[in-house]
Specification:
With 325 residues, the chain is of the alpha/beta class. The chain is built from 10 helices and 9 strands. The strands form 2 sheets. The chain has a 5-stranded parallel β-sheet with strand order 7-6-5-8-9. A 4-stranded parallel β-sheet has the order 2-1-3-4, sandwiched between helices.
Length: 325
């Protein structure tokens, strides 16, 4: 069950001098540990407010432009729900092939146009660095909802928040990242965020999908204990958080290579018999067979709760960049 934290009620209202007012959220590298604790506190308050009130008018009159150059169900609808729970409105642009982009409009011009109508822009784009380009062009805050195989900071924030809410803390945990660690922007961002805490990271992946060497070196410089494994057998019994990712077919140019690794690891009830009684299984979703549906009934399966936590984190971020938290 999620852990309850005793926190004093956080002030919501106009905070134009707050450190995140008007700021872009592009990378987890922007955050220090103190920032995270603040985001977690605001997110926790959002959770309580949704439970007790449902929707409120904190962002009434504010408009979010949801600009998605890649298909998205969870992230797009999560930001929409977050804005609407806070009383704001959303301009959804979820299929850019029917928009001005199809006519050849560049990203900077699209963003400049949208900010004429909106107070904040959320962008997902297939190219690494695209969110930074959008932010440079915009005068309004830009939130990166995934740039290619680069970063997905709001996913990393909701992942870290999930761990904290479910297990009560982050320091001292062993987190095992499993699956496509090469292309997985979620695991790249999460590993960087977790490096702000005293954690042990295990990497389990097929040889061609290993965690990028430069990221391992980056975390090594921060004195994070990291170990690579070819299978789960050795590390699962010591694991507090098993973070599973899908092998991303859309990142492969050769389908035969994808087929050779797509089913490398499958988590089912039999595999979880070796896991701790108090641990959690996470997944950024969508899944395509790497966690069987039989696992859904296991109380350690946290991936749908993880999606719900994402709503509260995105509510917190929208309130922060719009000067209301």
């Amino acid at each position: 069950m999620p852990t309850q934290h005793n926190m004093s009620h956080l002030p919501f209202g106009d905070h134009k001098n707050a450190p995140w007012y008007g700021k872009d959220i592009l990378s987890v590298k922007q955050f220090g540990r103190e920032n995270l604790e603040y985001i977690f506190a605001v997110s926790h308050e959002m959770h309580d407010m949704v439970d007790h009130i449902g929707t409120f008018d904190l962002l009434k009159g504010k408009i979010l432009a949801n600009l998605f150059y890649e298909p998205s169900t969870r992230t797009s609808s999560s930001f929409t729900a977050a804005m609407e729970r806070l009383g704001g409105s959303v301009i959804p642009i979820n299929d850019v092939k029917y928009s001005s982009v199809a006519k050849g409009e560049n990203l900077a011009d699209t963003v400049r146009t949208l900010e004429c109508y909106a107070d904040v822009i959320v962008i997902r784009h297939p190219e690494v660095g695209s969110a930074a380009i959008a932010a440079k062009a915009a005068r309004k805050p830009v939130i990166n909802a995934g740039d290619g195989i680069g970063e997905h900071p709001t996913q990393a924030l909701l992942d870290a928040f999930t761990i904290r809410e479910e297990l009560g803390h982050l320091d001292g945990l062993t987190i095992t990242l499993l699956g496509d660690l090469k292309h997985g922007r979620t695991v790249h961002s999460l590993a960087r965020l977790l490096s702000l805490y005293k954690v042990k990271l295990n990497y389990v992946a097929p040889d061609i999908l290993r965690m990028p060497a430069e990221l391992i070196e980056e975390l090594k410089a921060k004195k994070i204990e990291q170990t690579e494994y070819s299978g789960l057998e050795t590390c699962l019994p010591q694991t507090d958080v098993l973070y599973v990712t899908r092998v991303q077919k859309e990142r492969f140019t050769d389908e035969a290579v994808y087929e050779s690794v797509k089913g490398a690891f499958v988590i089912d009830p039999k595999v979880l018999k070796a896991a701790k009684e108090r641990m959690i299984v996470m997944h950024p979703l969508p899944r395509v067979g790497e966690i069987t549906m039989e696992v859904d009934d296991d109380p350690r399966a946290a991936y749908f709760r993880q999606m719900e936590y994402g709503l509260y984190v995105r509510m917190a971020l929208l309130a922060m960049v719009l000067g209301k938290a």
